[in-house]
Write a structure and sequence with these properties.
heterodimer, A: mainly alpha, MetI-like fold, elongated, B: mainly alpha, 76% helix, globular
């Protein structure tokens, strides 16, 4: 350190937000993931307008066109439908369900976690034991059982995926709130006569927001994956509507003759899920100074 | 120690109680409820359905019904399949071995490779290997199991012809242990992929925790060979937290088994669940939910016990 630097006044401490952004930018995979998500969202939203095919148009004379054959960039499926436009339309559905289910499960998990963490005692034990019990079941089992009871649609699938994936968020929030609860600023708020609801949502929630954002991002990844599983197994989005999962429904039959039918939708799922996982990982590094696994 | 065990046992029983309430709810909230199979009978009258509901105790208050149901469940009477009237427990137990075999093979593969990758990543932190392992694990966690299964079938069955594309043994073949193993390889590897990723991540973190501790520095300072320090001193301590992971991962593994079984037409419990859902065979569905939760509870309990035995520092909480 030179003398001049040593004598210069200390720079103002970086604000937490810009520090978090700097850390996030350093995480190259997270940047890649964020870029991939933006590209996928734009492609799914605007792409179908640019492609001169109808996702439901059946053209039996041009079925099983290999990729780049006959003007179809990604080829055609067993009914002669353009695969690229179906992938993009499916992307709309899969991404929508991913985001929407994340909203449902994050909201519910946060309320459960904050209630359990703030009130403690018997309520905490009851709520967290319930969380433990639900976590004993494989998520896909619960999801399939619920899906078999309902009429599958985007809205119902969103609800049941949300209903089976809020437990992690609840655990994270409960842990955060339980430790924050003992801090002086909560005591101060309570001494000033703040209501329980005020303390929970105005004091505790903003201070627990970092881990919630991380968990929410990872939940999007998980929700996209779960939608794919359920639709692949035949209980999710129903044909002729396309989702990345149900596009793989019949792909196994044509694995030998038309492998591209299996390869593209699976690659799309993997790219989407991996992107959200990368971003979640980057956010964890950026927002949580203590948890540094890398 | 006794207190610790007792506490864990009580906890498990409480969880089992909640789990049984969820199972009961599934059977009774399902469209048609336990009577679903009879309601579809052509020409059945409302009076007849009501009489059956009375016979089965469905007109009783729910807590009474739950108690009766629980007593039958504990007595081993899990009801009968709507599809072929077989006892539910026998149907499930007939399918369980295939699933357990698949899961056990996958977990062995996952632990061996995951632990190795994790240790290598920890001792060569930030090396090319470590970076590739990190990225690889994140991608492995993002690949849908069924898609990975399809890719494995495409490469190794369709193109190379090395592995059979499904089933537990050659149909109509003489069988034999080699035939079974041959059929086991692909589904076990597909199921193991996610677990390899999980185990390698946790192992790396656990190993990093241990090798920065004082007793490892002491061991190095004493002049012990690096290999001994790593595989004896560090490894034993780094593996301890991993025992709990085996219990925690049980539901994930079981969920993965369902998907793997579907792709590889493996005759296990996961496929039974899918088939039963197709037939609205609620007693079997409920039975499978109960068995899967039971497996998770037993897994956690076994992991706790094992951890307490392996690590004398673990005391009653």
């Amino acid at each position: 350190m030179s003398a001049a630097e040593a004598l210069a006044p200390a720079p103002p401490a970086a604000r937490p937000r810009s520090r978090a952004w700097r850390r996030f930018r350093r995480h190259r995979l997270a940047l890649f993931g964020a870029a991939a998500i933006v590209v996928m969202v734009i492609a799914a939203a605007a792409g179908p307008w640019l492609i001169p095919f109808d996702p439901l148009h059946i053209d039996l004379r041009h079925r099983f066109q290999p990729p780049a054959g006959g003007g179809h960039l990604f080829g055609t499926d067993q009914l002669g439908r353009d695969l690229l436009i179906r992938l993009l339309m499916a992307g709309r559905i899969s991404l929508t369900i991913g985001f929407a289910a994340m909203t449902v499960s994050t909201a519910f998990g946060t309320v459960v976690g904050i209630t359990a963490g703030y009130y403690g005692g018997a309520l905490r034990i009851a709520l967290m034991r319930f969380v433990d019990a639900v976590l004993c079941f494989p998520q896909i089992f619960l999801l399939l059982v619920l899906a078999a009871f309902i009429q599958p649609s985007i809205a119902t699938l969103t609800l049941i995926i949300g209903a089976t994936s809020w437990m992690e968020v609840a655990r994270v929030v409960e842990g955060q709130v339980r430790s924050l609860r003992e801090r002086d600023f909560i005591l101060a708020a309570e001494t000033l006569g703040a209501s329980g609801r005020y303390v929970m949502f105005r004091e505790l929630l903003p201070n627990a927001i970092g881990p919630i954002i991380v968990a929410a991002t990872l939940t999007v990844a998980r929700a996209i994956l779960m939608e794919a599983y359920v639709s692949f197994l035949g209980y999710g989005i129903q044909p002729p509507m396309a989702s990345w999962g149900n596009m793989l429904n019949n792909a196994q039959e044509y694995l030998a003759s038309a492998p591209w039918l299996a390869i593209f939708p699976g690659a799309a799922i993997t790219l989407a899920v991996a992107s959200f996982n990368f971003v979640g990982d980057g956010l964890r590094d950026a927002l949580d100074a203590r948890l540094d696994l890398h | 120690m006794a207190n610790f065990l007792l506490g864990r046992l009580v906890q498990s029983l409480v969880l089992l109680f909640i789990v049984s309430v969820i199972g009961f709810a599934v059977l009774h909230l399902a469209p048609g409820g336990p009577l679903a199979q009879f309601a579809l009978t052509p020409g059945i009258s409302h009076a007849e359905l009501a009489r059956m509901a009375h016979q089965m105790g469905l007109d009783q208050p729910l807590p009474v019904q739950y108690w009766a149901w629980l007593r039958r469940l504990l007595g081993g009477d899990w009801g009968h399949s709507y599809r072929d009237n077989q006892p539910v427990l026998a149907v499930i137990l007939g399918r369980l071995p295939a699933t357990l075999e698949l899961m056990a093979t996958a977990i062995v593969i996952a632990v061996l490779t995951g632990v190795w990758i994790g240790v290598m990543g920890a001792i060569r932190r930030y090396s090319i290997f470590d970076m590739l392992a990190t990225i690889g694990a994140m991608i492995a966690l993002s690949i849908p199991t069924f898609w990975f299964g399809l890719i494995v079938i495409y490469i190794f069955s369709v193109n190379l012809g090395w592995l059979p594309p499904g089933n537990r043994s050659t149909i109509g073949g003489g069988g034999g242990i080699l035939d079974y193993l041959h059929h086991l390889i692909a589904p076990a590897i597909v199921l193991a992929l996610v677990e390899v990723a999980v185990w390698s991540r946790y192992m790396r973190a656990s190993m990093l925790d241990v090798i920065n501790q004082d007793f490892i520095r002491t061991a190095h300072a004493k002049g012990l060979p690096a290999r001994t320090v790593l595989w004896h001193h560090a490894m034993r301590n780094a593996l301890l937290p991993m025992i709990a992971l085996a219990g925690v991962e049980m539901p994930t593994l079981l969920g993965g088994a369902l998907v793997t079984e579907t792709v590889f037409t493996w005759p296990g419990m996961g496929r039974l669940l899918l088939d039963s859902l197709g037939y609205r065979d609620y007693p079997v569905v409920m039975g499978i939910l109960m068995v899967s939760a039971l497996l998770a509870l037993l897994g956690n309990l076994a992991a706790d016990l094992l951890a307490a035995v392996a690590d004398p520092r673990i005391r009653l909480r």
